[in-house]
Design goal:
The structure is a single chain. With about 450 residues, the chain is an alpha/beta fold. The strands form 4 sheets. It has an 8-stranded parallel beta barrel, surrounded by 5 helices. Strands 6-8-11 form a 3-stranded mixed beta sheet. Strands 9-10 form a two-stranded antiparallel ribbon. It is about 40% helix and about 15% strand. It contains 15 helices and 15 strands. One of its GO terms (cellular component) is cytosol.
Length: about 450
């Protein structure tokens, strides 16, 4: 097993944390006034979830949060990234606020502060209220951006005095591409490039929410995008062109509007609805940090249905798209069949620095982790974390401004379209009894953090 005390020393003040999301762990979907989410409807549709699971109970964090807080305290992290469930606060998406829903997060934030753990709140981690999907078309509707801003304002009004850092959106690329483009995630629409309005409206919602948060006195604000290197399959014009388009759609489309105030391609901007130029002024709000979720690179070439073996976030690419994703050869695979490429993390950070220069705020690695099926003796997860942290330290030594690192995830959880088949947790969850059992990786990280504090 890798020695946790042998990790190189990270800077003083570096923020160590773990991450979860409300829909994946809370359960209690019908309790204390919570309304349905689009994902609740999606999971109820036969064939949508690989193992037929739902998130009605998930890990029952809503009732067991004190037990989970004890795990956080024992782990020794300085921060906990969690999300607020929009339908728990506004069951209809807007209108009447559900005070009981906010009470839950109020108690959690107070307890985190008492334990010396900084709360890092994500306002949107994919759980759009079902009435917003059914009534307004979800993120295809411009009105949803304003509903989201109202929701952000209400949460900040209640929690803003105690939350250390705020994240507006988590991975709008996945929501757009998987939820509206390919139909593999909620809300299950298969619009391909006609899904692009969902990207623009999420970004607009980010900008409006950022304004609302600033008006409430929030001092540390960012958003989180998934990023990874895009490698062309070959030097041919067809493969490099396909890789460039994929890079635009998964990386640049979601980074350049908030960081540069423009879309990466004029033709792409012309496909988007509304007064785009004016909206971009709202989207490009000043950020205090930029969240990066890193998992793996993408090897991309011209589409070839006979060879296309790769995936985007676990979802196979349909042949009608103008690019294809291939499996990266010669790499260990995780339990989710993702390639283990630790050096892709500093490559991602270098690319962001080179593209955006001084427009790029300090970075937080808001997710990095891996799924493996082992019960508690998870040496492969330890090796994964060790390798990625060493690569991250290399990036810091090069002068890249990274201020924190969050492991995905504290707990095994409901992993979207995969149901309960993929286990990302530092803590094993028995889904029959809901018993929590720390894995070896939990103990490894605990010792690593103790060694960091000792210097």
């Amino acid at each position: 097993m890798t020695d946790p005390t042998s990790l190189p020393r990270f800077p003083d003040g570096f923020l160590w944390g773990v991450a979860t999301s409300a829909f994946q762990i809370e359960g209690a979907v019908d309790e204390d006034g919570r309304g349905p989410a689009g994902w609740d409807m999606f999971t109820a549709e036969p064939g949508r979830i690989r193992d037929g699971g739902t998130a009605r109970t998930a890990t029952d964090h809503y009732h067991r949060w004190r037990e989970d807080l004890a795990l956080l305290r024992d782990l020794g992290v300085g921060a906990y990234r969690f999300s607020v469930a929009w339908p728990r606060v506004f069951p209809s998406g807007g209108g009447e606020l559900n005070a009981a829903g906010l009470d839950f997060y109020d108690r959690l934030v107070d307890a985190l502060a008492e334990a010396g753990v900084t709360p890092v709140v994500t306002l949107y981690h994919w759980d759009t209220p079902l009435p917003v999907e059914e009534r307004d078309g979800g993120w295809l509707s411009r009105d949803t951006a304003w509903l989201f801003a109202d929701y952000a304002d209400a949460v900040a009004a209640r929690l803003g005095d105690r939350v250390g850092h705020w994240i507006t959106l988590n991975e709008p690329a996945e929501v757009t591409l998987l939820g509206y483009g390919l139909g593999e995630h909620a809300p299950g629409r298969r619009l391909l490039f006609d899904a692009l309005p969902a990207a623009h409206h999420q970004l607009l919602g980010h900008g409006l929410a950022a304004q609302a948060l600033r008006a409430r006195g929030v001092r540390s604000l960012g958003l989180t995008n998934s990023h990874g290197p895009v490698w062309p399959l070959s030097a041919s014009a067809e493969d490099t062109g396909a890789a460039e388009l994929y890079d635009v759609l998964t990386n640049r489309l979601f980074a350049e509007p908030p960081l540069l105030g423009r879309y990466p391609d004029e033709g792409l901007a012309a496909m988007l609805p509304g007064p785009v130029a004016e909206d971009l002024k709202t989207i490009a709000q000043p950020l205090d940090f930029y969240g990066v979720n890193y998992y793996q690179p993408a090897l991309v070439g011209a589409p070839d249905p006979l060879e296309q073996a790769g995936e985007f976030a676990g979802i196979g690419m349909p042949a009608e798209l103008p690019f294809g994703i291939r499996e990266i050869p010669g790499r260990e695979r995780t339990g989710s069949n993702w390639a283990v490429v630790p050096e892709g993390l500093p490559e991602t950070l270098r690319t962001l620095r080179d593209r955006y220069g001084d427009r790029l705020p300090p970075v937080l690695i808001t997710e990095n982790g891996c799924a493996y099926p082992e019960h508690t003796a998870d040496a492969r997860r330890i090796a994964f974390l060790d390798a990625h942290l060493r690569q991250l330290h290399t990036a810091l030594a090069e002068g890249l401004d990274v201020r924190g690192y969050f492991v995905w995830s504290l707990l095994d959880n409901f992993e979207w379209a995969e149901g309960y088949g993929w286990r990302f947790g530092l803590v094993h969850v028995d889904y029959a009894t809901l018993a929590r059992t720390p894995r070896d990786s939990y103990r490894w990280l605990r010792e690593a953090l103790r060694a960091q504090r000792r210097g």
